[in-house]
User: Fold these one by one.
Assistant:
Number 1:
Amino acid sequence: MPEQDTSRRPPGVCIPWEEKRKEMPAIRGDEQLVERVWKDIDGLAYMYIWQVLLSF
Amino acid sequence: MSAATETLYAQRLKRYVTAMRNGKPDRVPIRPFVAELTAKYAGYTIQEVTQDYQKAFAAARKCAADFDWDAVVGNMVYGWAGLVQAIGLRYYASPGVELPPDTPFQYLEPPEDEAWMRPDEYDALAEDPTGYLLSVWLPRVSADVSPLGQPSSLRNNLSFLKGGMAMLEYFQGFGVQADRLRSESGTVSAISGILKAPLDILADKLRGYKGLCADLFRQPQKVLAACEALAPHLLEVAAGGADPQKNVPIGLWMHRGCVPFLSPPQFEKFYWPTLRWIVEGLWARGHQTLFYAEGDWTANLKYFAELPERAIVFHVDRSDIFAAHRTLGEKFCLSGGVPNDLLAFGTPQDVRACCKKIIDGVARQGGYIMDASAIMQDDTNVENLRAMTDFTREYGVY
């Protein structure tokens, strides 16, 4: 049974924040804010592909 | 919303939830899963409700109001053809396009040697399910999405743009629909969230049923590994769409895990372990799962009986409802059991007799919800549906 997800792309994730962060210059303001919004929108893309599979 | 409608909604919600928790409400809840029947009743073609989801929503609201049901699915003609066409999905035949306008939509399984997932791709799927779906599966199932490494195109870009925007609009529409059902007729939205068993995903959308059947013998460990890789994602998606109030269940659409599609030993080995893990994970988060068990799952009831008490609502299609009650009734609510062919071709008297037999046999201690065996399409006779509704309202009082 799945106990620990060791895949590169865990549930809810398309492009991991860690991968995106490497592409960005120094964040001069609130990095947690940037991370949270990145993950929220990335989750929408995740939901898209899994809902295509499940619902349509 | 009027105070009277809000009171009616509260009564219905309490009735529905009490039954689902295997309790005894004031009377048997009525929760019909009506699909293309709503089109017939509301005066639309099947094409109209499949192509234009606002008409599907309107038809569902009209049925809910006129029949005065306790709960209904916001739109049971769920596969919106407009979205399917925007993405360019190949596996769908739509009413009014590939099909006559009054024929329900059809899923098309590809030839075995052209399955959307090839037999040597299990490792790729298990390694990175999301990446596989985006990079390999979607370009195959969509006529517009470009495969990786191939030049992109305007149609590729538009498939994602239109698909994403349309999906967002559609799913937000369900929220509005739930509010309108509540405010206009005091009707509860019956389910929230979607789930399928990992093995059904492999059969329905990836390998095809024939391909999957061969894989069960030729590469069973790969099949198991794929199911285990899919399971956390299916749990995530189901939980993501679940009712935040934890009142109504997640809909689990059970397709080909029962006899004759899988033998009980195959079910035990391939279908059940990961599905059980998901369902128990959802229950640990407070969410019930509606086992919409299409077909005859009588041989599998003993497995479902292992689940935690109240974790599921078990819907009866062709299963023996009295066997289901004996095996599962102590722990779980049941729903359904009124045959669709009876609702289509029987008399109202026959329907009432059937409802009486079911209520007398499985509902006397509560824990039962009245519904047809399977999703009601356009062959359902409206007078028979009315007979089922009216009889249950009169006779199903505790």
Number 2:
Amino acid sequence: MALLTLTDVSVTIGKLQPLDKISFHIDKGEILGVVGESGSGKSLTAMAVMGLLHLIGGKVSTGTVQFAELDLTKLTEDQYRRLRGRRIALISQNPMTSLDPVLTVGEQIDQVSLLHLGLSAADARARSIDMMVQLRIPEASVVHSQYPHQLSGGMKQRIVIAMALVADPDLIVADEPTTALDVTIQAQVIQIMVEMVRKLNVALMLITHDMGVVAQACDRVVVLYAGRLAESNSVHQIFATPKHPYTRSLIGCIPTDKLTDGELKGIPGNVPGVMNYPSGCRFHPRCPMAQERCSTEVPMLKAAGSLSVACHFSESAAS
Amino acid sequence: MIAAPNLVTMKGLTREFTSRKGLLGKPRTMRAVDNVNLNLPKGKVTGVVGESGCGKSTLARLALRLMDASSGSVHFDGVDLASLGTSDLRSLRKRMQMVFQDPYSSLDPRYTIAQAILEPFVIQGVAQNAAQQAERTAELLNMVGLSPTVAAQFPHQLSGGQKQRVGIARALALKPQFLVLDEPTASLDVSIQAQIIELLERFQSEFGLTYLFISHDLGLVRYFCDQIVVMYLGRIVELLPNPQAPPRHPYSRALLDSTFAPDPLKRRVIEPLGGEIPSAFNLPAGCAFAARCPKASAQCKTQRPALVVADNGSSVACHHPHD
């Protein structure tokens, strides 16, 4: 049973339409990876789910965002506020900016339970410390009364994860949660976040540009390109038999031991800006398989089993 | 194994920084780079990996003498950089250039791309008439795969990848032999990163360039480099003349283990490193990595391991290296 279902969601900002008819779902307790280059629409998708588009002057112009029994596009800001932090939580990219520098980290975790769960101060504190211990924050009761600047980047991001988990949400949206961290710390944070999400059976929408993280952590994957859905499938199928040339190119960009010198291939060109979306398939100017048809005809999203793909040549791509 | 002559030789290279806590605090000294001995073979790519604060960017600056060493030396093609006066150093800089990490801040927003690319010629006093300038600009832009129309544009009109291409074009303008690449792809998408690496690979083989490639991504370094140096808190902990060989230092292993393979069939549990990187102002007496190391013994806490060369030519600074 799907927990979150986006159906033909388009987002407009003024006259521009950076997101075009995106559809996907996340099941309860599932980890969904959302990938694509910068400018593909990953963060906008997250903002559409979190109801934050108005902050950048945007809105969901068509389509529905069904979360459990609620159509999120119909909620008032007041209703949304009760939902955010309680049933849907956000982990953003930079822990340095998502924590308040003048409050102790403990107070900031406590606030979530005080506000959303109506706990007493003592209970909220106990709950926060319990969550911090589960996230393997050493000396949790000491750290509870420390300020963000006293903690390392990895510890701060664990605090942000604790804030996201403490009200026992159904869904967490994590937007590039480890990009700002050092590599060894990234791996630890991803690992502990995934472990906790699995343990607490929370669904996770994991936005990342790191295909390694996707392979390691996700159940299913959605690939976005220039504001449209290119492909979605189970993580095993996506890596074993990617059907969209863009998916294949993305996987081919990762340096691995299997590649010898000169074999690493970038994707030529750049993601087009929203003002310059190409006609037809938006990937066609960069696509190694593009034919004439691709520049004129928008490929429809075809579904078969767990696969959805928008490419005129997805059948031949399989071979 | 690398048998090329060395273009750059670093001996006992050390750089200290002093800071004080508060206005009246006692000055404290840290060594951002501590006694680094490293040879860069001609025409090869040497990769330096490590996390933030390991001294890799300081090493990059010392290699070009963009910053003076506290002690030790850097020789470029037999010349001691520290012995050069301003004008000699400037003229030597034609032969050694740097590509910076952040293409967003390394280009002056008020300069057109053509001006940015031509600036090295101006600085070096290479006089050119307008026609030569236009020709050289078009040639350089073409070399890095940019359209000549870019010349009249300003940095804000370009994407990150395009800006980094301009940074490379500018570094190549004076036909150098040696390029220091300080995390040139760290702020770019993987798709664009791969483009830039393709470009750098091509120039390396076409012009026989020598690279010092700074990165935090051991996977990328293993792909791109001919030898690898792993740094931790200012020191070389391991030198691998064969990038594909499994590293032996526990820290290098941890770095390698932190990269997830893009293959869902290769899922694994990472043994997390304990603890945090210690402050460079307050280094432990023994091995700087001991507090986080799964193999640490009592010896590691008191005695700093020296960088020892093994039979296979690799060097490792560890009392208990992996086999």
